[in-house]
Amino acid sequence: MADAWDSGKDHKPSRVIHAASWEEFEAQIKKFDDPTRKPWDEVWFRGQADSEWPLSTTLERRLDKKWMVSAYFNLISEVHPAIETFTDGRFARPDWPEEKDPSGEPIFFEKRLRAHATYLAHLRHGGFPSPLLDWTCSVYVAAYFAFHRARHDGNVAIYAYREWPKSSKVGSPWFPSIVSFGPNLKTHKRHFRQQSRYTACVQFEDGRWYFTPHDRVFGQKNHLEQDLLWKFTVPASERLKVLRFCDKVNLNEFTLFDTEEGLLELQATRFIDLRT
Q1: What are the tens digits of pLDDT across the range 103-161?
Q2: How many of the other CB atoms lie within 10 Å of CB of 223?
Q3: By the 8 A CB rule, do 129 and 22 touch?
Q4: CA–CA distance from 10 to each of 57, 203, 224 (Å)?
Q5: What are phi and psi of 203, to 5 degrees?
Q6: Is 210 helix (H, G, I), strand (E, B) or coil?
Q7: pTM of this prediction?
Q8: What angle do CA 124, 129, 132 make, to 5 degrees?
């Protein structure tokens, strides 16, 4: 097991690491604890209930098509009045020019995209199909999401992501690249409860910006000392053990979502699942 591990300090390519138990996973993940790590170099985590699932956004799962950034912004502009009416919130109205951009300058593109981060994150937490992949800076929040509905004989997956091992990041608009958001966003309360972070993967083609799958970055051999990804797999049979641990540290559906449905799910977990 030790031979399969790389903490990222020497910036090797991403790895898949199988932990035979929850305890083994905890021992492995502790190797990310580094008090010398710089503030920009956070490690983000994401839990998925099945290790066979791809690392895809809800927009990709909802409709398998290539989305221009301008087309998606037109879409969320259409739902904007309904969202503001229901929530009494105010969000900057999405605006994205449809004309071609001859330069494809990443700095201006990212600045424009981040200007709408509050609304994009709110939609993501509300369940609207989103080009954002959501992460958390808490490995235990990620573990809860991985195990909560993992009722199968396979493995769950918990990903660890380091975007900025160095103080800078390089890229080209003509290659897939990752844009990150968070943590300081004035958005849905769940953002703070879940210690959320977000990424979008984009590429410039034929004078237009497109959302593109994250695997186009993560699936390539990484020589750039950036966008490092590890995939940990853990048997789903560890589910009840993990849920008991999470409940003891007050990580559950109610504390993460703060809804009546979450409270009822917590009661079901405690009085049905954890009594078996």
Answers
A1: 567 777 888 888 888 889 989 988 999 999 999 999 999 999 999 999 889 999 999 99
A2: 9
A3: no
A4: 29, 27, 11
A5: -155, 145
A6: strand
A7: 0.88
A8: 50
